[in-house]
From TrEMBL:
Reaction it catalyzes: 2 GTP = 3',3'-c-di-GMP + 2 diphosphate
Source species taxonomy: Bacteria, Pseudomonadati, Pseudomonadota, Betaproteobacteria, Rhodocyclales
Species of provenance: Nitrogeniibacter mangrovi
EC number: 2.7.7.65
Aminoacyl-tRNA synthetase is among the record's keywords: no
Listed Low complexity bias regions: 153-163
Domain GGDEF: 442-572
Name of this chain's protein: diguanylate cyclase
Length: 572
């Protein structure tokens, strides 16, 4: 028998030897992660490859890694761009005469391009190509006169704008003043609002807007066109830069959230907040979603702040109790030491006693000290028992507060209005039930419902009545669902129900049972009885089908139920 050290490599070799396989497919996740930490992320291309490679390593699969490397190699090959012809065109266009483009303006534009995209060769090539195209469009021959508009008479080149003989209207020589003012407003208030951090571009936009507001004559239109083209290029480049910065900041923020999640793994009361932040920044940013996340987090943080203070107070009281416990033990130790000294003194006096009278004094003193020690021990025992009860109560209070902290964190997985699961909670419930269904080879169905005529309720009775109607709906549904079923608010007046261990026919029956339950429970608002109904679609999650695809099928079935007359349940 061969003896080898118990190393991971030897275990792996032994496994492949017994199973008759090779270790070619062993995935070096740790080595790849070390490589990931050293990859550059200074350009959009590098950042895109970094994310793709990180995702492939997280899947521990060779095909995604291979695709990422192939894409990187293709991108690297594509970076062998035609720089020679491009530089030749730049030199030709720089020396050529252009309408209202001076050499100084060309030099400024070229310096701006080189400074803004010098770290990304592909981006630099693209921007330089665009710059050359804009110069080419404004090029003129050395002796070519500036052309007049085709509808302008020849005399307009020499005569001022005035009514022509015979009452014919004069050609339009300037921009409409109202249009110029509107364009100025668009440039300053519309475009300029996005350039608060780019003073140079903001000034260029304001200057162009002022020129437009002054209603320049047609003779200045070529110059305006050149200025607009140059500004459009600069705005495009600024937009690309801002988008790259935004993507990089989002990636950094996600890394920070992931790092915090790993550091506070034992603090379950933070898991909900970190999960909702990760969800918010993993999808395209939307101001409404961010406002909703901020509001939910603010409510949770306020509640957790109060509970955290109570927890700190309880922990402080526990520390004080433990300090008192230690002091009492010290007193008991001192009393025991004093009693021990008394016993030694009495023993010495007994040895030295010469008659019975001396012994009686010693015995009386010994009994008195014994009673005192007994009384001190009794009091100490009572004090320690009381302290133990207080410590038990403090520990129970701390455990209760810690549970409340965790429960408060879980609130970010629930809809604040109805108390049902939100999208994050639904995703977790679906993932959990799907995994269970795959292990048990059981059926898993979804029911997507939408309240009928909900907009009419809001418009007629107000939004408070609409919120109360949703609460009424969820209460009735919860009362008629099984304990293992999950209910969540999918969006607006749409709700999703997860039916584990249920085939599609029984899921349809369950949804119809909910509809009947609603007909027996009227919704009261403003002294009026309203009948709340819903239309629903039911779908079974097929093997190897993503939950999102099943939800889409249920959504289509729900809209068929709407078109069929509402208050119906359709099977996908």
């Amino acid at each position: 028998m061969e003896r080898v050290p118990p190393t991971p490599d030897n275990y792996r070799q032994l496994y492949h030897k017994i199973s008759g396989t090779t270790d070619d497919d062993c995935f070096p996740a740790q080595a790849f992660k070390r490589i990931l930490s050293q990859l550059p992320a200074g350009t959009p291309t590098q950042l895109r490859f970094l994310r793709q490679f990180e995702k492939a390593v997280g899947q521990r699969s060779w095909p995604p890694v291979a695709r990422a490397l192939i894409e990187l190699a293709s991108a690297s090959q594509g970076q062998s761009l035609a720089w020679g012809p491009l530089l030749q065109q730049i030199i030709e266009q720089f020396e050529r005469r252009h309408t209202n483009l001076t050499p100084a303006r060309k030099r400024d534009a070229l310096e701006h391009v080189l400074g803004s995209a010098s770290t990304d060769p592909a981006l630099l090539h693209s921007r330089l190509t665009g710059l050359v195209k804009s110069w080419t469009a404004g090029a003129t021959s050395d002796d070519a006169p500036l052309s007049l508009p085709p509808d302008a008479p020849a005399a307009a080149a020499h005569a001022p704008s005035a009514p022509a003989a015979g009452g014919a209207p004069a050609p339009i020589a300037t921009l409409v003043p109202e249009l110029g003012a509107d364009l100025n407003d668009l440039m300053c208030r519309g475009v300029g609002a996005f350039l608060s951090e780019n003073a140079g571009l903001a000034e260029a936009v304001s200057a162009l807007g002022a020129r437009l507001a002054a209603a320049p004559p047609r003779t200045e239109l070529p110059d305006l066109q050149a200025s607009v083209g140059e500004l459009a290029l600069r705005l495009e480049w600024a937009g690309e830069d801002q988008n790259s910065i935004r993507q990089s900041l989002l990636a950094l923020l996600q890394l920070v959230i992931q790092n915090i999640s790993q550091l506070v793994m034992d603090d379950q009361w933070l898991s909900g907040q970190l999960a909702v932040l990760h969800e918010a920044f993993s999808q395209p940013l939307d101001i409404r979603n961010l406002d909703e996340v901020e509001r939910r987090l603010r409510d949770v943080i306020d509640q957790q702040g109060r509970i955290k203070k109570e927890l700190s107070d309880a922990q402080l009281r526990l520390k004080q109790m433990l300090a008192g416990f230690i002091d009492r033990l010290a007193d008991m130790s001192d009393s025991a030491g004093a009693f021990h000294d008394t016993l030694e003194n009495c023993a010495g006096e007994i040895e030295r006693a010469e008659d019975i009278n001396q012994l009686s004094d010693v015995v009386e003193h010994l009994l008195r000290e014994t009673r005192t020690a007994q009384e001190n021990a009794r009091r100490s025992s009572e004090d320690l028992s009381s302290l133990r009860q207080q410590v038990d109560l403090a520990n129970a209070e701390i455990a209760k507060l810690q549970h409340e902290l965790h429960h408060t964190s879980e609130m970010v997985r629930h809809d604040p209005l109805t108390g049902t699961l939100n999208r994050k909670g639904l995703d977790e419930a679906l993932k959990r039930e799907l995994s269970r269904a795959q292990r048990r080879s059981s059926s898993l169905c979804l029911g997507l419902l939408d309240v009928d005529n909900f907009k009419r309720i809001n418009d007629t009775h107000g939004h408070h009545a609409g919120d109360a109607a949703l609460l009424h709906l969820t209460e009735v549904i919860k009362e008629n669902l099984r304990p293992q079923d999950s209910l969540g608010r999918y969006g607006g007046e749409e709700f999703l129900i997860v039916f584990p261990d249920t085939d599609v026919e029984h899921a349809v029956t369950a949804m119809q049972r909910l509809q009947r339950a609603l007909t027996t429970r009227y919704f009261l608002t403003g002294g009026q009885k309203l009948l709340i109904t819903f239309s629903a679609g039911v779908a079974r999650i097929e093997p190897d089908e993503a939950p999102e695809a099943a939800i889409d099928r249920a959504d289509q079935a729900m809209y068929r139920a709407k078109r069929a007359g509402k208050n119906r349940v359709m099977m996908a």
